[in-house]
Amino acid sequence: MAEEDEDPLTPPDPEQGPSKLDKVLMQYVKEKDEQDCSWEEGLDMKSQGKEDSASEEGHAAGTVQDVRRKRSKRKKRKASTSIDKSKGLDLFADSFANDAKSAVRTFLTRYVARQLTREDYWCECQEVEAGKFIAKLHAPCYRERVTYDGNICDSQKEAEKSAAETFRNDTEAQESAAALPASLSSIRYATKADKAKMSILRTHGRFLRDESWHLYNLQRDEGCKMQVWDGA
């Protein structure tokens, strides 16, 4: 006689162990738990990936902003340094070591803030004896009633250099040179680098060129023009 099949709905006998249905259910639950764990791990990894990505993006954005701030500060610092360096003029700088005429021309050009003309300064040279010359420097754009006499030299060219040397050895000329305003180009660069100021200028319809000239003239009025008294 064949054995009867086990009824899957009959409660299991503890002594006989789990039934077939229990085994199937246990296997299903085990596989389900493994799938759930795998899915949760994947979700956690995905979430962590998003957080890491967001963190990296935030860090990258912060880095870009930091770089921009540093560049802005560096640009302003550079502009400020450029203005400070271009203030004043040393008439005995290395670039003018053996060229007093260039020192005088550079000083007068910056003093009047434009290209010089023949009426601004000139040398009056004359031959005092055979092969001997003396020059007198006139600079009415700087001091109208003052002339600078050079020494007697063997050539007209050397006589002009001597007169220029007399000019740059003049105490008042040295003080005026030291008080020269910053160069117009450095003022323009610094103004352009100041975004807040540029925004205000645009709002009021002012141009960079006009503002640069305004700042230049303010420095000029407070500086070298106050150093010279063209009196008797």
Weakly predicted, low-confidence segments:
1-12, 226-232
What composes the largest sheet? 3 strands, antiparallel
Please state the CA-atom Rg, rounded to the nearest Å: 44 Å
Structural class: mainly alpha
What is the strand content?
5-15%
SSE order: HHEEEHHHHH
Brief summary:
With 232 residues, the protein is mainly alpha-helical.
Explain what this protein looks like in three dimensions:
The chain is mainly alpha-helical. The protein has three domains: 22-64; 90-178, Double Stranded RNA Binding Domain; 181-232. Helix content is 58%, strand content 10%. It contains seven helices and three strands. It has helices spanning 20-86, 100-112, 156-168, 171-178, 184-193, 195-203, 208-222, and strands at 122-129, 132-139, 143-149. It has a three-stranded antiparallel sheet with strand order 1-2-3, with helices on one face. Strand 1 and strand 2 (132-139) form a beta hairpin. Helix 1 packs antiparallel against helix 5 (184-193) and helix 2 crosses helix 3 (156-168). The longest helix is centred in the first third of the chain and has 67 residues, at 20-86. It is elongated and about 140 Å long. The termini are far apart. The model is unreliable at 1-12 and 226-232 (pLDDT under 50).
